[in-house]
Design a protein that fits this description.
six-stranded mixed sheet, 12% strand, Uracil-DNA Glycosylase, subunit E, alpha/beta, 202 residues, binds iron/sulfur cluster, 6 strands
Length: 202
């Protein structure tokens, strides 16, 4: 993973390399079961080279704490590793150029759960999904990974109603992790009223 970070830091595969201050490969526990995938670095992240280190990052940490988890227990990265100027949306060719790094991170960490943060991150995995319809539900990704679409933490910063939605959706992460450990004990998984599984990976 250190080699991958170095590759990202010196990457010139798309035009975002010209405007970035720092590339932001990702950060966290590479032995984790959970990866959070955002869209792209923002201004603070670009300055520091660390993902989710501004107000959104603080809220992400609070949401993790609400399910008794710490930031250091998970891995956090983005679809696109360099900041699009003015925080514009990442372009298709930038996402395409950068996808190799995310794929390698997923292959290396082998997470049980991927939580997408925001619309672009969700559309990377499932382009047809509409976030308002699928957030907080559980989907199968490939054979072994559960994918949980979440809103971007930024939407919860200034709207209490969205903050509550995000906090509610985070509870499902805990549920999935405990289901996984139950599976490992070869017990039947109790179905959740909020769980809605579709295998769309084929
Ligand atoms: S966004 Fe990705 S592909 Fe583009 S320069 Fe940065 S690391 Fe390379």
């Amino acid at each position: 993973m250190d080699n991958l970070a170095q590759e990202v830091i010196s990457c010139t595969k798309c035009k975002l390399c010209k405007s970035r201050t720092h590339a932001v490969p990702g950060e966290g526990n590479v032995h984790t079961d959970i990866i959070f995938v955002g869209e792209a670095p923002g201004e603070n992240e670009d300055k520091k080279g660390i993902p989710f280190c501004g107000a959104s990052g603080n809220f992400l940490e609070k949401m993790l704490e609400s399910i008794n988890m710490k930031r250091g227990e998970v891995y956090i990265t983005n679809i696109v590793k360099c900041r699009p100027p003015g925080n514009r949306d990442p372009e298709e060719e930038e996402i395409e150029s950068c996808k190799e790094y995310l794929e390698r991170q997923i292959d290396f960490i082998k997470p049980k759960v991927i939580c997408t943060l925001g619309r672009y991150s969700l559309h990377y995995f499932y382009p047809e999904f509409i976030i308002s319809k699928v957030h907080g539900k559980i989907y199968n990704y490939k054979d072994t990974i559960k994918l949980i679409p979440l809103y971007h933490p930024a939407v919860g910063l200034y709207r209490d109603s969205m903050k509550k939605v995000l906090l509610d959706d985070f509870k499902i992460i805990k549920e999935v992790i405990s289901q996984n450990s139950t599976t490992q004990q070869e017990k039947k998984i109790p179905s959740s009223s909020k769980q809605e599984e579709f295998d769309l990976s084929s």
